[in-house]
Amino acid sequence: MPDSAPFATSDHPQAAERLRVGGFTRLTTIDYPGELSAVVFCQGCPWRCRYCQNGDLLDSTAIESLIDWTDIRVFLRQRVGLLDAVVFSGGEPTAQSALNAAMRETRAIGYKIGLHTSGAYPERLRPLLPLIDWVGLDIKALPEDYATLTGVPDSGERAWSSLALLLEAGVNLEVRTTLMPDWTLDYLRNLSRKLAATGVRRYVLQVCATQRALDPNLPGYSIMPRELVEAVDPRLFEHLDIRGI
Q: Which of 72, 97, 110, 192 could form a cystine bridge with 5, CB 3.0-4.6 A?
């Protein structure tokens, strides 16, 4: 569950130090397209997606492996000019009220800001938009089918509201969908067409790694991922990418 503190902007110098960080990658070339990045993995997520690969980041109260923001701050200051960007990932970063302060501080040091999000909190995403240079947004399914994946009612409405918000704001956006093993060709066609119709231009399809999924009963693919991918008309998007095949 998200933290209980109200979500508000704070310029207090210690506000960022409340950010609960469950993991940290010092260098990556794949988490922010075209940029050398570090990744901050925020602890806690309100959803329990069946194919989730980051089960250790779901519990917001976990403290065993938390990393102090002060240590990350030192690292980032030492890497100015060597790294281009910092990506806040998770878990679900927007579940934490300290995210705004952490992004502000990171931007002030001199980094571009990336965000990986499920779109679970559109109302919390909105005030972050002036701080963000790039977003990777997970759109998991058609809105009416979200609860079967996340276990949370109305999660689809929230995610698609976040998509509309990002498109309206003109943020540099990549939308990603993980291919569910029980999807049909028609389902993926309908989903991709709906995304294109909303204005999505950069779309990424990802293979579901069922052997590491949160749900141990997730079935294997009945239609091979390559066949599913071929159901998507590449002319719908300016950029269509496939990961995991």
A: 97
Confidence of residue 55 (pLDDT cuts 50, 70, 90): confident
**Structural domains for the chain:** 15-243 (3.20.20.70)
- 212 CB neighbour count, 10 Å cutoff: 12
Task: Report how far residue 56's alpha carbon sits from residue 178's, in angstroms, rounded to the nearest whole number.
Answer: 19
Distance CA 207, CA 227 (A): 12
Contact 175, 139 (CB under 8 A): yes
Cα Rg for the chain, rounded, in angstroms?
18
Contact, 115 vs 134, CB < 8 A? Answer: yes
Burial class of residue 208 in the structure, from the number of CB atoms within 10 Å of its CB (0-12 exposed, 13-18 middle, 19+ buried)? buried
Q: pLDDT tens-digit profile of 209-235?
A: 887 789 999 988 989 999 999 999 999
pTM to 2 decimal places: 0.92
For residue 220, how far is the Cα from the chain centroid?
A: 24
Residues contacting 234, CB < 8 A, separation 6+:
240
DSSP symbols for 62-83: --TT-B-HHHHHHHHHHTBTTB
Both tokens of 215, joined, read: 């749900």
> What does the pLDDT look like over 58-79, one tens digit per residue?
888 877 779 999 999 999 999 9
